[in-house]
Structure formats: C-alpha cells, structure tokens
Amino acid sequence: MSEEEKAAAPAPAEEETKKEEEPKKVEEAAEEESTATFEPVVKLEEVETKTGEEEEECLHDVRSKCFIFGETLLDKGTGNKTWRERGVGQARILRHREHSRIRILMRQEKTMKVIMNHAVDPRIKLEPNAGSDRSWVWSAYDFAEGELVETVFALRFADSEIANGFKEKFEEAQKEMEKVLAGEDNPGEDGGAAADEAAEALSALKTSGDDDDDKKEEAE
To answer: CDD domains in the record, alphabetically (predicted)?
Structure first.
C-alpha cells in the first residue's frame, strides 16, 4: 500500500467509533418515531354484556357432560332415538332473587351456548343411568333452544360422590321450589299446574346469545 493510500485510509479507532455511533442514531430515530400518536378513525364504546343471570344467585355449580335422548336430524320422523352429547360445561342451579323461582342452566364451554335451561320442577325424578353410578337421567320441559320442548337429559359427572352431591342439591331446590309454587297464602294450589306455569315463565328469562344461537349450529 502506498503512502497516499495509507493516509486516505481511516484509522481503526475512527472505524470503531463510527460503528458505535450508527446504532445510537438508529435507536434515537426509533425513539422519535415511537412518540407519534394516532387517533382511531372509529371509536368503539364499551358495551355491557348481560348473561340473564344478574338477578339470580347460584345454589350449586358443578362441571359435567350433558346428553339428550332423541332423534337426530337424519332420523327425524323414524322413531329411532339415541343418546347424543350436547356439550360439556358448568351445570348451575340458580334462584331468582325477586320471585325465588329456581332453574338449572348449563352453557357449553368456550362457545357459552345454552345447552340446558329448565325450571326445577318438583315432579322431576332423577333416575340412575343404567350401568353408571356417576350419572342421572330425567325428563323436563327445556327452553335451551328458545321454545319449550320436552327433553330427556343425562348428566355425567367425574365420580359418584360428585353425582350424589348434585342429586342432593337438586332435590333440596325441588323442595324449595314446591313451597314457592304453592304460595304461603294459598297452600292448596295445584302444584302440578304451578310447575307448568313456571316452565312457561322460562320464556321470559333471556340469556345472552340466544338470538345468535338460533342462527348457527351448535359447536361440538
């Protein structure tokens, strides 16, 4: 290398200084950019979501798997009925704070679709499912699909102890519901007719997402 080339070439220290200064300049530029603010074109207002359970207190809450017994869409009209799973979720026994009527409500996990919604009718009898000590079967007028439909349910629990605990709480709720339906001032009222009236009253209990659920299939 000639003397002129050596003189023109930067010293090693100068090269290192330039390399250190370059990242600093990039960082400073990034900091300047991060101070910029952008106003959204459309402002979304916060909307309070109601589940329909705000006026109720929970008497019992247990995770289980729900099944229903009946015809599938393919078997409709054939009389061929089978058990099919409706979903997994929390089975909740709820009492209304104002009129004290009790219902059982169950939503499918993740989708929160209502898969069980009926009054705790005092006439319901929980029967053990054949071959299992951790499930109960019963029939009720269900309102999960937006209209009252007589449905045969089965709930399966993690073990027999949890299943028996559910049965105990359900029967306690039935006794309480029977007193509510009879009425303190009219103990001679027909309990069966009152229970039917309670089932019809479920149509007034709105649950979040009912309208949307009518438009789409259940997510299994």
So the answer is: RanBD_RanBP1
Q: Which residues of the chain have pLDDT under 50?
A: 184-189, 191, 205-220
Long-range contacts of 77-86 (CB under 8 A, 24+ apart): 83/154, 85/220, 86/115, 86/116, 86/218
Report how far apart, in Å, the C-alpha atoms of 49 and of each of 45, 92, 116 are. 12, 19, 20
List the chain domain ranges.
56-182
- Strand ranges of the sheet holding 127-128, from the earlier edge strand across to the other edge: 114-119, 102-108, 82-96, 56-70, 149-156, 135-142, 127-128
pLDDT of residue 220: 42
Question: What is residue 111's DSSP assignment?
Answer: T
H or E segment and range at residue 210: helix 210-213
- Top CATH class of 56-182 equals mainly beta
Phi, psi dihedrals of residue 18, rounded to the nearest 5°: -65, -40
Q: Which residues contact 209 (CB under 8 A, 6 or more apart)?
A: 112, 113, 114
Contact 87, 171 (CB under 8 A): no
Burial (Cβ within 10 Å: 0-12, 13-18, ≥19) of residue 182: middle
